[in-house]
Amino acid sequence: MTKPANAASVYGVTSAQLAALIDISAVQAFHTENDVRQLAEIAVGNGFIAAHALPNFVPLLRDLIPVEGLTLIGGPIGFPSGGTATKIKVAEANFLKDAGAQELDMMMNVGRLKSGDLSYVADEIAAVIEAVAPVPVKVILELYHLSDAEIRTATDIVCRSGAAFVKTGTGWTPSATTVEKIAIISEVAAGRAAIKASGGVRDLDTVAQMISLGVTRFGINTTVAVELVRQVEALPDGILSLPA
Q1: Which of 155, 224, 240, 244 lies in the 20 to 30 Å Cα band around 214?
Q2: Catalytic residue at 205?
Q3: Catalytic residue among 89, 97, 167, 181
């Protein structure tokens, strides 16, 4: 991030810095090989920090994205339901690591959390993290299904597990990633894990507010992500100002 010379207390983000905060993906059931090829081209061409594909396409993504480039390769675990058995999630995580994934987004077991089986949730996250260390793991809460109290509980579990990020959603449910929900996660996380806002982030004002709350990664629809970066380029001095 940069601090504009004409703004003593307002920090800002350039278009390149914003791109370096954004993951783009092709992880819907209908995404094809051609979609994955386009994903790689767009990610590299625009300087996005990561590109994610469904597990079977991760080896292709590894072939398409330069190993020493700026763009990381990611894939999902237990996606999108989170309901697969722990040993299956561990196996999938190991497959993705072996296939060249450099970061993994794991879907938490929402049903177990809502059942109050918190030890199951915590042990499963820990098992995946241990299996693929040092590859960073982001744990998806899927906020749409959770109450505020459950968001607090889930965030604390993820932070205590040693996960790299708390992630808000898969993009497979109606949007629930709001500034208010991010504020809850930020308060509970308190710097113990990074925050990835994913699902329904569509405008620069929301992005700016979320960055000010501590979000350091966004999962944004590819078309929207490109448009937001272009919008920042068109701003005065090419900088997106953040709330003080």
Answers
A1: 224
A2: no
A3: 167
Is residue 7's pLDDT more than 50?
no
Residue 3: what pLDDT? 35
CB neighbour list of residue 191: distance below 8 Å, 6 or more residues apart: 214
Structure-token match 């507010």, residue found:
209
Is beta strand 137-140 parallel, antiparallel or unpaired with respect to 239-241?
unpaired
CA dihedral 198, 199, 203, 206 (to 10 degrees): -60
Q: What was the pLDDT predicted at 236?
A: 87
- Round to whole Å and give the CA distance between 93 and 91: 5
Indicate which residue of 23, 105, 156, 181 is catalytic: 105
Listed residue (44, 41, 40) closest to 53, CA to CA: 40
Which one of 97, 138, 181, 196 is the catalytic residue? 196
Is 196 annotated in the active site? yes
Indicate if 167 belongs to the active site. Answer: yes
